Write the structure tokens for this entry.
Amino acid sequence: MGTARARVCRAHAARDGPCVMTNLLQDGVTWLGERLKESASVTIVYQRGPHVSDDLTVTKSLHEYEVIDTDGIMTTIKSTDYLIHAADLIVNDTVITPRSDDRVTEVVGGVSQTYEVMPLGPQKEYEPLDTDGVIMTVHTKRVA
């Protein structure tokens, strides 16, 4: 622990009891994730096989990624990405991590749109947005 933080912790402990110093970056990511939910969110339902989640509040974005395919050729992939709090992704009473063929359903203007979770070339179907995995970016493509 840094010297300044140690002094703050000792001063706090002397006054109020034991001091627990949290990870400032993790706190910041959690705070940012909550602000995104409040101001830049959509509602989806996540599906794995016959099982579906409750409504999830997530942030949606469109990205183009350049990946090298199995033949060594650079290709551009368009992905509809969803930023999802990892702890919120509960299907069939279990916290899950995304995998290929999972589905995301979103209603836009009264029309249901379905997206399929997909990997980006040799990469995974999702990636952590932060070092602690509080929020993850899930890559999808529209299928219906």
